[in-house]
Amino acid sequence: MKFGIMQSPLTNAIYVGRLNKKGNEFLEKHDMSLEAFMAVVNHIATNMEDEGNNTVNISSEKVVYSLTLTIKDKVLSDE
After folding, report:
1. Which of 5, 16, 26, 44 is the most exposed place for a label (fewest CB within 10 A)?
2. CA nearest neighbour of 17 among 5, 8, 9, 7
């Protein structure tokens, strides 16, 4: 069973779901936009390479992306 993740150009949602055998279509999908975004934020915050400059490097086989981020924690009130 294959799983996929994609950003919809129509709705801007991030979908996660099971793919067909060719891997080119969803058999079922779920909007996981918030969960995907929070997972990426937590991953970046955990793997920050230069905390003073808020820099993280993400690489693939061909490209290295260097991201500079400002991460601020904000506690929401219980009210």
Report:
1. 5
2. 5
